Predict the structure.
Amino acid sequence: MFKNIVDIIYPRRCPVCEEIVNEKGHLICKTCIKKLSFVKEPYCIKCGKEIISEDSAYCDECNSDREFEAGRGLCNYTDEMRHIILKIKYDNKREYIEGFAKLMAIRYEKFIKVSNIDCIMPVPLHSSRKRMRGFNQSDILAKNLSKYLDIPVLHDCLCRVKKTIDQKGLSRTERLHNLDNAFIVRDLPSNIKNILIVDDVYTTGTTIEKCAKVLKDSGANKIYFLTICTGSIS
């Protein structure tokens, strides 16, 4: 009843067209869902990025060893998706996240089930950036995925202790070293072995790699990930 009242007072707006969603039970307009560039086959079996060749199982970046087991993205990181992500992060449109979380849970339910996930962990923000923004979009994504997948969230175990510059515009080498010693793990429960990391965007995978490394060093077994977007804008 409370949710229905809230929906009446603050009706849901579609993250694509930003108009009120009229279809009951939907968080994104039916017509707007068709406009989204969902990741399609062939894609890298490791990170989930679309690849051109059907003869290759991996993208160029995943031909070498990875710290994570596997991951998937929902949408390609197009100009339209970049605009939506920026609205979420800098215009406080955090309510847009749930629509994508629901689609992620539906599409990757089997991927999650076979991975035997023990918990979900959001990629953390540095405390100063979180204070400035007021929220961490990955926290909200984790909470919504938890609701749809019925998997618990551990919020304060994976921590960001180094304030880094924005990864955008950095070379691959610069990205890798920009995140050196950026993450630590505090009190990982001994029963947590298979972890699902969630974030808004996956590009080169450096952030996921660094998080996976410290988690495995702390006793985790296998690290998987899901993101709203994957790839890069050409």
Summary: The chain has a mean pLDDT of 90.
